[in-house]
Amino acid sequence: MAEYSISELNKVKRGPKRANYDIDTINSILDDSFLCHVGYVYKGQAIVIPTAYARKGDVIYIHGSLKNRMMLSLLDAGVASVSVTHLDGLVLARSAFHHSANYRSVSIFGSVRKIDDSDEKMEALAYILNHMVPGHWDNVRHPNTKEFNATLVLEIKINTASAKIRAEGVNDEQEDHDLPIWAGVVPIKQVAYDAISDTNLPLDVKVPEAVKLYVSKNKSI
Amino acid sequence: MAEYSISELNKVKRGPKRANYDIDTINSILDDSFLCHVGYVYKGQAIVIPTAYARKGDVIYIHGSLKNRMMLSLLDAGVASVSVTHLDGLVLARSAFHHSANYRSVSIFGSVRKIDDSDEKMEALAYILNHMVPGHWDNVRHPNTKEFNATLVLEIKINTASAKIRAEGVNDEQEDHDLPIWAGVVPIKQVAYDAISDTNLPLDVKVPEAVKLYVSKNKSI
């Protein structure tokens, strides 16, 4: 079981029994989402911005416009912190104190590099789109020179990372078990609904299989 | 229409037409979620951590253990950046370049204060629980002295904030409209499912109305 080494940066201090440094576990949490929150330092203060991403091996790709302050600040700093969180449920305990959530979260600490090579950059853009809807890159018009040049793509190489996972029921104090108070878990899930086609489509253009598959894999259970 | 004043910190630089500084709009986005991503600076690097929150007026409450590094770092810095994001849909365009997401996000910049007053602290804890499931504080056992003293509650007073909202269809280039390529929007929503009661409950303890109401308001459409 390959793990990220534990350092001051990625060590999970609170709730260490929920901590996980296993690379496969971390990758599976990263692959289940395409929205991350990136942190960067601007004039001494941390700023947090949501953005799309994709993973390839031990790197994360993000993209934005050439003038994006977050992207430029990350490039300037050379390091990035990225958080990915899935909310899986509300844990409603008998006591206020033991209320919690079921979740899977990952914190990444990585080094930032601008992707200059054209082939590598185009591949990264394909990864970002395919990470959202697998296989959909092959269905769309690829970037022309103007669009390609207007896009900044950064690679964040994962130097260290950690996951925190809570996936269980209520943990109340033993002496609270006989109280006439309800406790339980409310499952939470992010779901997709049937695609709404653009109104300007030529008549014979149908929803691609990749999009249908995405919806069917993410629809409400 | 009351707005946050625009400063270097909260000014939306990319996609300014999606920017919104209206306080009611920002508050409604904050009230629709209870999971935020907090940024703080640790040894010169930004770190991003997901946590629960509640809003009361122009303040955000977060809580954690007395030794929580994020909480202590925020207190030490005196300032916090908080991001709240709702993903509402995938915008799948004809061109890779015009792919986007429908979302509502808020960035807050605030000053951090530890809540020492007992009444104020208990009220903040009630706000955090009720922000998750409205009214549920009245159903549970409140913190005892030991639990209360083991909890650190911080107030983040919103000094400035901004929202970004995208809530529309595909924006492709005009010349791409006749291409035989599908485009459309896949709606995305975070939904709740029926509560799963703890197995150790006394027989006559039923799911509270507050929990049922939460589920019914957040179930899949």
TrEMBL record, chains A, B:
Signal sequence annotation: none
The protein's name: Flavin-nucleotide-binding protein
Matching InterPro entries: Pyridox_Oxase-rel, Split_barrel_FMN-bd
Domain of life: Bacteria
Pfam families tied to this protein: Pyridox_ox_2 (PF12900)
